[in-house]
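re: ur question from yesterday

yeah so i grabbed the chain u mentioned. its 328 aa long if i counted rite. heres the sequnce exactly as i have it in my notes:
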Amino acid sequence: MKLSILDQSPISSNQTAEEALNESMLLAQAGERLGYERFWMTEHHDLPGLASAAPEVMLGYIGAKTNTIRLGTGTILLPHYKPYKVAEVHNQLATLFPDRIDLGIGRAPGGSAEVTNALNDNFLQNVYKMPDLVKELLHYLDRQDPKVSASPLPDVPPTPWMLGTSEKSALLAGENGVNYVFGQFMSDADGPASTRKYLDAFTPRKQGQTPQVIVTISAVCAETTAKAEDIALSSLIWQLQRDKGEGEEGIPSIQTARDYPLTDKEKERFADMKQQMIIGDPQEVKAQIKEMQKTYHADEIMIMTTTYDPDDRVRSYELIGRELSLTI
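ran it thru and got these structure tokens back, copy pasting raw so excuse formatting
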């Protein structure tokens, strides 16, 4: 099974943004050493506790510090940008790091309404135009315009992936012959139905192309289930804090998370969020990942792990990789 890493560059309460971004680089190096297929970084804007606003910038830094792991923007929020510029940026990365660059495409705003307005005067209109924007982007990536090139032109173009949490995104990916990523960790939708829609709708964009499915999950693994539950507590409490407009100080320590008082409503929300995650020892996590791969007909599982201590995060990926027989 192929495994990959999704990183939001979270900032712990004892870190600066600079330190969090450096930990992202160290995580990519660890992922490469552990045998993970790819390392993607998310795009978020003005969200307290997340340092990754420009994943395309971070990939240039991380690419220079790694050698083989595939690198990707997961995701570029296409309604904010002109497709030509997106193609240029990723072609530049693919020129610097041959046959290693993925281009994840999404339609979410990535921040508050105020931030969306600061980024883009026409976001909603561009969301409606998303099918046209995707076609235009692929037009440049596939070098179909005889008059305009998104140069530099790498020997191996970036690989486009459509990210989504609905059947709409699945159909858009399939109809355009683009690989598909379903974000299970942030969706209550019927994910397996979406991936089936994608597979049924898939029309090859290039000769010999086959559909590819990644499912993105949130997971925390440790030597024991109890330890994994303890480590996961920090990210769960942090999410509750962010839902209330708090959490500006970043991911709380495990002890701070233990001491955080929860209302009855928050306890219900906590249980729901925990249900969306995979938390356990290596054997438990392996079993759930294998089941998810089967249910989604997935070619690959992409894992997002958020912890207070960066060492716990690397250890989680190490244990999962070893249990699922990656090269370590």
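noticed a couple things. The two ends are 14 Å apart (CA to CA). also The longest helix spans residues 225-243.
anyway ttyl
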